[in-house]
Write a structure and sequence with these properties.
- By secondary structure, the protein is mainly α.
- It has a single domain, classed as Serine Threonine Protein Phosphatase 5, Tetratricopeptide repeat.
- Helix content is about 50%, strand content about 5%.
- A three-stranded antiparallel sheet has the order 1-2-3, with helices on one face.
- It starts with a helix and ends in a 9-residue tail after the last helix.
């Protein structure tokens, strides 16, 4: 009888250990999007299947914790768009067409989101920023907001995360295309960050392309400003 009780005890112990070993791991939602690459065409990490989500249209208003005010606004429905997952590409579905939205506060809010490192905020912010600046009449609407937009854009450009920097660099190009010379008085706020990245071979070509775009859109008067911060830069005008 003692042997039988001992065997039962060992069996119970093994069952208990097995129970401990099968515990469900903590929810991983809101992990940093280290797999996100620069640009708005980057694919986010594949999410785990969930019966709570539509397989094509994903509303992330209950998503993971972000790092900026953008994440909080997005989770509370303050950003008028949602991410639509396609089989090849992802896109945004806007509650209201971007050209009909009030650029203030939507555009500065999206600029704030460029510092995010968590999916879906990374993708929504950069895609939303790009699409608003490409909408009809964006230049005249965005120009008065440059002080509000350039500040968070600069914060993203000096961010230590490479993916954040690349999204901000992409956003700077879209902003320049939209507002043209109106950006000139604000360039000193972003050029120092670009100058530091020029020393990194990985980003030298991308930064040069952006500087050329700034000069092209801003005119010849921009060259002394750029050269003041990036002495090695060569003008596109020869």
């Amino acid at each position: 009888m003692a042997s039988s009780n001992s065997d039962g005890s060992r069996t119970s112990s093994r069952g208990s250990a097995g129970s401990r070993g099968s515990r469900t791991p903590p929810n991983s939602a809101g992990k940093k999007g280290q797999g996100d690459s620069a640009g708005c065409g980057a694919k986010p990490k594949t999410a785990r299947p969930s019966d709570r989500l539509n397989p094509k249209t994903v509303d992330h208003f209950s998503g993971g914790k972000g790092q900026t005010a953008f994440a909080s606004l997005y989770n509370n429905g303050g950003v008028p768009c949602r991410l639509v997952h396609g089989s090849v590409k992802h896109k945004l579905a806007w509650n209201t067409p971007p050209e009909q939205l009030p650029f203030d506060p939507v555009l500065p809010t999206l600029a704030e989101g460029l510092r995010e490192t968590v999916h879906p905020y990374t993708l929504v912010s950069c895609m939303g920023f790009k699409e608003m600046l490409e909408s009809q009449g964006a230049g005249s609407k965005a120009a008065p907001l440059l002080p509000k937009v350039v500040t968070p854009l600069r914060a993203a450009l000096i961010h230590p995360n490479n993916d954040v920097f690349e999204r901000a660099l992409d956003g700077l190009g879209h902003l320049s295309n939209a507002v043209g010379p109106a950006l000139n008085p604000h360039l000193k706020n972003v050029l120092m960050a670009l100058s530091k990245r020029m020393m990194d071979k990985k980003y030298r070509d991308k930064v040069t392309d952006t500087l050329q775009l700034l000069e092209q859109n801003g005119g010849k008067e921009v060259l002394p400003v750029i050269k003041g911060k990036v002495p090695t830069y060569s003008s596109i005008f020869g």
